[in-house]
Automatic annotation (TrEMBL):
<dbReference type="InterPro" id="IPR001320">
    <property type="entry name" value="Iontro_rcpt_C"/>
</dbReference>
<feature type="signal peptide">
    <location>
        <begin position="1"/>
        <end position="24"/>
    </location>
</feature>
<protein>
    <submittedName>
        <fullName>L-cystine-binding protein FliY</fullName>
    </submittedName>
</protein>
<comment type="similarity">
    <text>Belongs to the bacterial solute-binding protein 3 family.</text>
</comment>
<feature type="domain" description="Ionotropic glutamate receptor C-terminal">
    <location>
        <begin position="36"/>
        <end position="259"/>
    </location>
</feature>
<keyword id="KW-0732">Signal</keyword>
<dbReference type="InterPro" id="IPR018313">
    <property type="entry name" value="SBP_3_CS"/>
</dbReference>
<dbReference type="Pfam" id="PF00497">
    <property type="entry name" value="SBP_bac_3"/>
</dbReference>
<dbReference type="GO" id="GO:0030313">
    <property type="term" value="C:cell envelope"/>
</dbReference>
<dbReference type="GO" id="GO:0016020">
    <property type="term" value="C:membrane"/>
</dbReference>
<feature type="domain" description="Solute-binding protein family 3/N-terminal">
    <location>
        <begin position="36"/>
        <end position="259"/>
    </location>
</feature>
<dbReference type="GO" id="GO:0015276">
    <property type="term" value="F:ligand-gated monoatomic ion channel activity"/>
</dbReference>
<dbReference type="InterPro" id="IPR001638">
    <property type="entry name" value="Solute-binding_3/MltF_N"/>
</dbReference>
Length: 267
């Protein structure tokens, strides 16, 4: 009877270990088995991820992810997803991880695990040129007579409502529509990350915008994964450490931030 009981106990423990091992397999392990790393992104954030005139998704973060997939021996599969629904889409297994210029905020960190940041940015302003004399910083916009815009679901929206809460706000599903509101005089300022604004002021500004380029927030951008996926975090963090010291990161960064050749692909 004791032998039978011990045998049953051993079978039970073995089953639990097998279940635990299955549960422990994370996004990176799944991607290696599948042969593709599926990354959710909203390809409208220049120069991090965007769609060129041939319909290809390109950008700084895309190139980092391509290097990551190559280091895993798999292909990168980008999954276009509206930004305001990207966290729920991760939770329902539409893709393995989020790579969409996402700021690591404490609010988001309650829902997700984040890798170490791969870049730090900050919110800046594109304002109507007519306001150059009266708007010197975000604080000057904190008045109900001004109208603000940004992309919905982003830290641009969060910051506008938190730090410039007295102004009227109307957001859009993509950056370009929001910028055009300012160009067309329907809004006074566009609140968004510095890397996007430095491109947008020339590409979409039509000579009607002024770029207030001093960031007024601290925003580390990182890759988002489901909570508890520590093996994947370990891999991604080690990958980021590697590329930041072997020249890969600098090469990719300079391609998108110091060279403007890619802009020809966006016409």
């Amino acid at each position: 009877m004791i032998k039978k009981y011990l045998s049953m106990l051993l079978v039970g423990v073995t089953a639990l270990v097998a279940v635990s091992a299955a549960q422990a397999a994370g996004a990176i392990d799944d991607a290696v088995k599948r042969g593709t790393l599926r990354v959710g992104m909203d390809p409208t954030y220049m120069p991090f991820q965007m769609t060129n005139k041939r319909g290809e998704i390109i950008g700084f973060e895309v190139d980092i992810l391509k290097a990551m997939a190559k280091s895993m021996g798999v292909k990168l599969e980008t999954v276009s997803t509206a930004y305001d629904g990207i966290i729920p889409a991760l939770m329902t297994d539409k893709f393995d991880m989020i790579g969409s210029g996402m700021t690591l905020t404490q609010e988001r960190n309650l829902k997700l695990n984040f890798s170490e940041p791969f870049i730090v940015v900050g919110q800046t302003l594109l304002i109507r040129k007519e306001l150059a004399d009266e708007i010197k910083s975000y604080k000057d916009l904190n008045n109900e007579k001004y109208r603000l815009t940004s992309k919905l679901g982003t830290t641009g929206e969060m910051v506008a409502k938190k730090l410039i809460g007295k102004a009227k706000y109307h957001g859009y599903d993509n950056e370009q529509e929001a910028v055009m509101d300012v160009v067309n005089g329907k809004a006074d300022a566009f609140v968004y990350d510095a890397p996007y604004n430095v491109v947008a002021v020339n590409k979409a500004g039509a000579g009607k915008l002024l770029f207030l380029d001093k960031p007024f927030t601290f925003e580390p951008l990182a890759f988002g994964l489901k909570k508890g996926d520590y093996d994947s975090l370990n891999f991604i963090n080690n990958f980021l450490h590697q590329i930041k010291h072997d020249g890969t990161y600098d090469r990719i960064h300079d391609k998108w931030f110091k060279d403007t050749a890619w802009l020809k692909d966006m016409e």
